[in-house]
Amino acid sequence: MIRVFLVTDDPFLLTTLKSALNLATGLGLAGTASTAPQALTEISLLKPDVVVSDAQLIGALRLTQQLMDQCPTPILIMSAATPDSQALSNAQLAAGAIEALPAATLSTDPEAGQLLARKLKVLAGVSVFRRKAQPQTARPALAAQHVSATPRQKILMIGASTGGPQALEAVLAKLPAHYPLPIVCIQHISKGFLDPFLLWLGGKVKLKVSVAAVGESPEPGRIYFAPDHANLELDGYGRFAYSHAPEYLHYPSVDVAFHSIAKHYGSLCIAVLLTGMGDDGAGGLKAIAQAGGQTIVQDEASCVVFGMPKAAIDNGAAQKVLNLEQIAELLCQAV
């Protein structure tokens, strides 16, 4: 039985979360708390397998920092559909929480409770490590050189899911402001969370961060993200395009993006597959390798969830298996 501890001062959210746990097999309630100090005390005593925390609880960020320092436990953040709540969620992800989900869908989407249960079961198996809270000084994104890209220019592709925001920060923050390649990132993310995540990430990296726009050509020294409602592809002219394919489980799909890059860029692509559950990206990474591109996956020890990288290793797509620091070093040297 996976023991889940709930932290919220919202009676409606608490009732909804309890109902979701009751309907799920293999999940049980370890306890609840309505304040951050109470939660810290009880979690330290009860040692649950997973913590679900309300992003808007007073002291929620400090609670995440203290848990990571004193009692490391996988944390899932429930966020409201407001910019302030989503910004708080991103701050808690940076402090060590593993994933965030929109709270509103639990009461409106019949499948949301099942998704929550699946996430909790995955998170229960995640190893988290003690980490001291580090003061962060936001840095403005620097303007990049504007040079039109074509399919004859190298490009860096990165795919990620669970644990991806922290992994992306660790890698992208190491890249210099004059990085000569366009960078395209495919991050599985719930609708409404992308904009505040990009705002947060923009303060951590030296490059300009934005959502890829249809018809736009990727430029060197910029970081582009797929939208949260569609798949992202690049066409034969090196321009972004959106697509919708119901057979893919995730929007955006890493596989869709990687396959389009394999087709149009081939050996001019460097592709990285980071932490995440499932196998999205493994097939696309293999296509890039077969087209002559360079392929890298994150190693098990540094992954939050080793699903996607392991799938790429198992199907022979991974040319290199590295930790996050090694990936950043290699990307700096590979151009």
Automatic annotation (TrEMBL):
<feature type="active site">
    <location>
        <position position="161"/>
    </location>
</feature>
<feature type="modified residue" description="4-aspartylphosphate">
    <location>
        <position position="54"/>
    </location>
</feature>
<feature type="domain" description="Response regulatory">
    <location>
        <begin position="3"/>
        <end position="123"/>
    </location>
</feature>
<dbReference type="GO" id="GO:0008984">
    <property type="term" value="F:protein-glutamate methylesterase activity"/>
</dbReference>
<feature type="active site">
    <location>
        <position position="280"/>
    </location>
</feature>
<dbReference type="InterPro" id="IPR008248">
    <property type="entry name" value="CheB-like"/>
</dbReference>
<dbReference type="GO" id="GO:0005737">
    <property type="term" value="C:cytoplasm"/>
</dbReference>
<keyword id="KW-0378">Hydrolase</keyword>
<feature type="domain" description="CheB-type methylesterase">
    <location>
        <begin position="149"/>
        <end position="335"/>
    </location>
</feature>
<feature type="active site">
    <location>
        <position position="188"/>
    </location>
</feature>
<dbReference type="GO" id="GO:0000156">
    <property type="term" value="F:phosphorelay response regulator activity"/>
</dbReference>
<dbReference type="InterPro" id="IPR035909">
    <property type="entry name" value="CheB_C"/>
</dbReference>
<dbReference type="InterPro" id="IPR000673">
    <property type="entry name" value="Sig_transdc_resp-reg_Me-estase"/>
</dbReference>
<dbReference type="GO" id="GO:0006935">
    <property type="term" value="P:chemotaxis"/>
</dbReference>
<keyword id="KW-0145">Chemotaxis</keyword>
<keyword id="KW-0963">Cytoplasm</keyword>
<dbReference type="InterPro" id="IPR011006">
    <property type="entry name" value="CheY-like_superfamily"/>
</dbReference>
<keyword id="KW-0597">Phosphoprotein</keyword>
<dbReference type="Pfam" id="PF01339">
    <property type="entry name" value="CheB_methylest"/>
</dbReference>
<dbReference type="InterPro" id="IPR001789">
    <property type="entry name" value="Sig_transdc_resp-reg_receiver"/>
</dbReference>
<protein>
    <recommendedName>
        <fullName>protein-glutamate methylesterase</fullName>
        <ecNumber>3.1.1.61</ecNumber>
    </recommendedName>
</protein>
